[in-house]
Amino acid sequence: MTALSAITDTPIGPFTTIVDDAGVVLASGWTATVDDLVPLIHRSLRPVDIRPAPTLGSVTKAVDEYHRGDLAAVDDVPVAQTSGEFLVHAWKILRTVPAGSPVTYSEFAAMSGRPTAIRGAASACARNAAALFVPCHRVLRIGGALGGFRWGLPAKEWLLAHERG
User: Fold this and answer.
1) Cα(57)–Cα(88) distance, rounded to whole angstroms?
2) For residues 18 and 53, what is the distance between their CA atoms, to the nearest angstrom?
3) pTM exceeds 0.90
4) Contact assessment for residue 58 and residue 77, using Cβ atoms and an 8 Å cutoff
5) Rounded CA gap, 119 and 159, in Å?
6) What is the mean pLDDT of residues 91-110?
7) Under 8 Å CB-to-CB from 51, ≥6 apart: which residues?
8) b or e along 12-35 (b: 16 or more beta carbons within 10 Å of the residue's beta carbon)?
9) Distance, C-alpha 26 to centroid of its chain
10) With bands split at pLDDT 50, 70 and 90, how would you rate the model's confidence at 91?
11) What are phi and psi of 71, to 5 degrees?
């Protein structure tokens, strides 16, 4: 499979997205290089060739609109991720966490149907390849501490402040 990638300038730095030939997001994040994203794509979905494009159409538009204040712009962008049953389910649940209403890892585990699987919930965030579209930045530690974020805590802080309005 051949995929396309595009870089979008955002207030927190370059945001790169990789999509498959149907325009489905395979990986994304605040980086200027696809090399940071390719290892995040599951082997079964990983493209053999990734070609740069000036834009990814509606996907690039959604990224721009989100960063300009339309927080729902990325909600319906299709994403493809695969792994074990719990992670796939947890990523779907993450997409239901509303902007401006972050949850704790404990709450996320409960929302995912496994209230005692707090480490599993954290793993779902850590292994998420489609940052922004699957908003793992909306999960916090108990007490509101940020926890980790692949793209850096300053980016997570910016996203959470942006979503608070």
Assistant:
1) 26
2) 10
3) yes
4) yes
5) 23
6) 97
7) 2, 3, 4, 5
8) bbebbbbbbeeebbbbbbbbeebe
9) 10
10) very high
11) -65, -20
Place of tokens 């649940």: 93
What is the token pair recorded at 154? Answer: 């300053």
Tokens of 8: 């979008």
Q: What is the DSSP letter of 130?
A: B
| Closest C-alpha to 11, from 157, 134, 128 | 157
The reported pLDDT for the residue numbered 165 is 84
Pairing state between β 49-52 and 103-104? unpaired
Tokens of 135: 């908003």
Q: What contacts 156, CB < 8 A, 6 or more positions away?
A: 137, 146, 149
The DSSP H or E segment spanning 8 is strand 2-10
> Could you tell me the two tokens for 48?
């053999």
Query: Contacts from 96-103 at CB under 8 Å and sequence distance 24+?
Result: 97/135, 97/138, 97/139, 99/71, 99/72, 99/135, 99/138, 99/163, 100/71, 100/163, 100/164, 100/165, 101/138, 102/138, 102/139, 102/140, 102/160, 103/138, 103/139, 103/140
